[in-house]
Specification:
Layout (H helix, E strand, L loop, with lengths): L14 E5 L8 H16 L3 E4 L5 H12 L4 E6 L3 H4 L7 E5 L2 H10 L3 E4 L4 H16 L6 E4 L6 H12 L5 H4 L2 E4 L2 H10 L18
Parallel strand pairs: 1-2, 1-5, 2-3, 3-4, 5-6, 6-7
Amino acid sequence: MEIKAEPMQKSKFKRICVFCGSSQGKKSSYQDAAVDLGNELVSRNIDLVYGGGSIGLMGLVSQAVHDGGRHVIGIIPKTLMPRELTGETVGEVRAVADMHQRKAEMAKHSDAFIALPGGYGTLEELLEVITWAQLGIHEKPVGLLNVDGYYNSLLSFIDKAVEEGFISPTAREIIVSAPTAKELVKKLEEYAPCQESVASKLCWGIGK
């Protein structure tokens, strides 16, 4: 009996932007999650946009996507290239002038955002795209890959901000989270924007 290959899953996303650390973290589960996310993108025929590094979790997810035959776009400020671009870089590297242009370009070329575990840079990028969604500047889904509960404290803080009246319950729904890549991408596929537009998208150049 002939065994047929499993068909590639279709996705409404062409490219997903992944925010993550240039460190690997202390737990092997973080590294495994980065590779699993890369493989999940490949299985759904999705290309990767990321911050352009080839070390840490950034290197793992980009290598997995590249090895799977999908296109990788790394966007990095010229001043960070000596520090972050160590080892062999895969895919397409786009050098930009500064961090602001980096984030704008990453958003412009992506249909959704996912944050793996990371540090200050990951959080800064994540919170900015959440804020853009809250303002109605874009309607792209934002997901947290909550590996081993890494983002539990952040989610608790956000829930506290809702409780204290600093974040609206509707804005809380912007953030989608799941413990595995497969579950998270599925949730992002099902996401429906619920924010009213506050700022004109025409001024930002990142589109819907």
